[in-house]
Amino acid sequence: MDIKQIQELIRFVAKSGVNEVAIEQEDFKITIKTNQVQTVVNATIPAAAPVYAPTPVAAAPAPAAAEPTAAAGPDTSHYITIKSPMIGTFYRSSSPDKPLFVNVGDEINSGDVLCIIEAMKLFNEIEAEVSGKIVKVLVDNASPVEYDQPLFLVDPS
Length: 157
What we know:
Blueprint lengths: L2 H14 L3 E5 L4 E5 L2 H16 L4 H4 L1 H12 L7 E4 L4 E4 L15 E2 L4 E7 L2 E6 L4 E6 L5 E3 L4 E6 L2
Antiparallel strand pairs: 1-2, 3-10, 4-6, 4-9, 5-8, 6-7, 8-10
């Protein structure tokens, strides 16, 4: 089983809501356990809408109110979003006593290490695929991240 198959399996387990999956082959064994606290938090957010479903008037204004504030913000359409390639825990430095890999305003080049994502006790360096300037860090240090979750905004100009 290669790393891409393992990453796909992690994504599948996270989306399925299963707490634990174990696969054993001739020369390979893998066990994937999800963080039950994180799963509960993720399940709580979508579950809030059906609880208020009997009062659709209260539920309808929330999305409408969110759209104008997003439109009123600065134009981010020309920024490139760097997304998480896997599920795990996001770290901005290699250890708590080390400096951050990147800060807002830093110039980055393709191949520069931006952060680390820990998945299944493996620390994966996430490298920039573009050059530019870091405009915003979208995730707090030591926070759980999902597959394809935006991590950084980069101004390529």
